[in-house]
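Q: What does the predicted 3D structure of GtrA family protein look like?
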Amino acid sequence: MIGAFRSRQFLVFLLTGGIAAAVNFGSRILYNQWMGFSAAIVLAYITGMVTAFVLARLFVFRNSQRALHQSALYFVLVNGVAVLQTWAISLLLADWLLPLLGVEHFVHEIAHGVGVVVPVFSSYLGHKHLSFK
């Protein structure tokens, strides 16, 4: 399993995932202008997820044998788990841990940034073995 994280494919996954994460993070700030933090996290995650799917299909898992609709279904399922991780970590940090540590500035940005990073490894394995098998 460790070998899977030492491949060129994983590096490209990190790069395309980084782009999708930037879309996720930036759109959360934009959405947060019109809705609460919790809802903005979920909507931003969906925006980033669409970006990630397109980039993963084009650049990471080009040799996938799955039909597009099957890949999309598994992609959504894998990301359903990941969005729960992102949401829970973000709220835990923003509402409890960061205030406990005395962090007063950029609390939502720090919390959401950490929340976006947490599911990288589980998402890669899920997409490699399910979404783009």
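A (community wiki): The structure tokens above were generated from the sequence. The chain is about 80% helix and 0% strand. The CA atoms of residues 20 and 103 lie 27 Å apart.
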